[in-house]
Design goal:
Blueprint lengths: L7 H4 L1 H26 L6 H26 L9 H12 L1 H12 L1
Helix pairs in contact: 2-3, 2-4
């Protein structure tokens, strides 16, 4: 039987927990932002749902991108500051991609 430290998901536990908590918080942020943005475009229920859905899709794509690019390097224990960093990264992931591409060139 493999030890717990050799399992791939065990090694990624900090990244998975941080990303999960950040996604949970992003659902509420997307709801508030969707409601606020919908008032600019007529404030109908359909507009609010569309904006909320697009924001959630944006955050989910960001979660996949961040997990693929960053998760294997995340080894520090989870803390409130780390969760806030994951949360900010979920919303700013295009900028993170641009900055990492410029460094590699």
């Amino acid at each position: 039987m493999q030890s717990a430290r050799r399992r791939p998901l065990w090694r990624l536990r900090h990244a998975l927990a941080g990303l999960g908590l950040a996604l949970f918080g992003s659902v509420f942020i997307a709801a508030m932002a969707g409601s606020a943005l919908a008032t600019l475009f007529g404030d109908s229920y359909g507009t609010r749902v569309t904006i909320y859905g697009l924001l959630l899709l944006y955050v989910l794509v960001g979660a996949v991108v961040l997990f693929v690019r960053v998760a294997q390097h995340e080894t520090r224990p989870l803390s409130a500051g780390r969760v806030l960093r994951w949360l900010a990264s979920l919303w700013l992931w295009p900028a993170l991609l641009v900055l990492t591409r410029r460094r590699s060139d």
